[in-house]
Amino acid sequence: MNIVVCVKVVPKVDQVKFDPATKTVDRTSAENELNEADKNALETALQLKEKHGGKVAVVSMGPPFFEPFLKICVAMGADDAVLLSDKAFAGADTYATSYVLAQAVKKLKPDLVLCGESTSDSGTAQVPAQMAEWLGYPNISYASNVSVDNGFVVARRTVKGGYEVVKAPLPAVVSVELGSNTPRFPDFRRKRWAEREFKTTVWTSADLELDLSLAGRAGSKTDVVELQSIAPPQRLRKFLEGSEDEIAQTILEIIKEAVTE
Amino acid sequence: MGEIWTFVEIGPEGVEDVSLEIMGRAAALAAESGRKTAAVVTGWKVDEIVQETAKYPVDKVFHVDHSTLVTYDPSKHAKALHQLVEKEKPEMIFFGATYTGADIASRLAVRTGAGLIAHVTYLGIDPVDGRLVGHVPGFGGSIVAVCKCRPNTLQIATVRPGVFEKPKTTNKTAEVVKFTPSLDPAEPGWIILDRKVAKTVDVTRAEKVVVAGMGTGGDLTLVKKLADRLGAQLAVTRPLADIGVAPRDVQVGSTGISLRSKAALVLGVSGASHFVSGIQDVKTVISVNTDRNAPIFQFSDYCVQADLFKIVPKLIEHAEKGGG
Prior knowledge:
The complex is a heterodimer.
Chain A: E1 3-6, E2 9-11, E3 17-19, E4 24-26, E5 32-34, H1 36-52, E6 56-61, H2 67-76, E7 80-84, H3 94-108, E8 112-116, H4 127-135, E9 139-149, E10 152-159, E11 162-169, E12 172-176, H5 188-196, E13 201-203, H6 216-219, E14 222-229, E15 238-239, H7 244-260
Parallel strand pairs in A: 1-6, 1-8, 6-7, 7-13, 8-12, 9-12
Antiparallel strand pairs in A: 2-5, 3-4, 9-10, 10-11
Helix pairs in contact in A: 2-5, 3-4
Chain B: E1 4-8, E2 10-11, E3 14-15, H1 17-33, E4 37-43, H2 47-53, E5 60-65, H3 74-88, E6 92-96, H4 99-112, E7 115-120, E8 122-125, E9 132-138, E10 143-149, E11 155-159, E12 175-179, E13 191-197, E14 208-212, H5 221-230, E15 233-236, H6 238-242, E16 263-267, H7 273-276, E17 284-289, E18 302-305, H8 308-323
Parallel strand pairs in B: 1-4, 1-6, 4-5, 5-12, 6-11, 7-11, 14-15, 14-16, 16-17, 17-18
Antiparallel strand pairs in B: 2-3, 8-9, 9-10
């Protein structure tokens, strides 16, 4: 049972600054972290490996600064880490991103591909399903309770108002729901080993079978034509003072008035 | 100019509201730009859904019927839609940004080489170049990316539920066009082993909402009682949905729903940027937090610095006396 886990490094959302004058996002001032849901995907993979054996490889497409974060995945228990890094991959939308990731998956030939449900920076949740389409695999999104049995994956998929338990043939792409498990902490000794001795595999466009017209900005099908900051609505910001009884009565009056207006 | 299509998603109670909301928007865009609209229903034995859809403002309903479309296996539905797209060559297709809609839209975009704009909160057509414009909230909802698809591609967008008004039915019935895709029933795909779906309340349209945050400690008993007394719906912040005390359907913020209520009583919420984008359309916001410097007070009309465990019982008591 070999598993590929796709991960992404994202800026901490609350630290990203937007410059309304230049209409650009400054990510440099923000600290980076592994996308939260991707850790749930990795934890799922490690639990499946403990049960069924095999290897877990993490794969990420991004610039060289992603590498230390891939080593955190290795410290958590991943056997290998592959960074897909090339200027030709830059500026990709989800179409071009999912294409390059899919080509890397084709080279690794896993039984199962796991992703986080979405990323905290753009949050489109499109890449897992798009990758599955490039690969011709079935996909299950927003999954928890992922198990593997006799050539099939079974997962509980969140739907509006509840869930479905879906069975699909392997190989498949499954995106794991945020918070669906508790990701383990990196093992201290393994962490030291990962930082000092482990070698991350770096693949450029030359290492993959690629039609470069489908990768990066050139291969993208969408463009961001402008960024706008959203001005929050003006609020009264009035503090209510008084006894708890008085405040409670005032709140009820305010609600009543808001509804009848 | 080509047609604007809406993918019709089928829920436990018929056509999902989000599909109708999008159909309404598609009809308005078509009217102002001289285009035609169509709605696409994919499934197996879905005649009733097709009939229901045809009552809404749309020029045509495609009825895509096949036994392999009995589940929402995104791979099968994308294949069926791809065949219809090849035949009819629409210009734009809108999907609900739902668990099901987003998956099918993603796969269809790759199959057709289409541009896909995700989770839009606004849809328009650029009057100059005639191309689709979608607004995508990012970075916790504080920034909006104005997105367009590249020229000469099919333009697809997924639309957040609750953004557009649900249209009324018309007194005409739209033309129904049946399409039978060529799909192999023997090809492996999804098998549904179990399903549990409860009826959901559309919190985005509720008049009064009580929103619970981590300040409640995760026990919603008291807050639920208050919501009940006030005749309000209950919603939560993402951390509470993460720990599973409430479903994602009632999670407020940029990764969840946007409230449009007249009044929201926000209890024990700190006010992170990804949360406050979900209350910006609420008319009156009242917040209770123990920390006078909590960011939530910047986004509130009425601020109460107090322990919610003291205020909520008083609210219940006074509401029961008829004060609410």
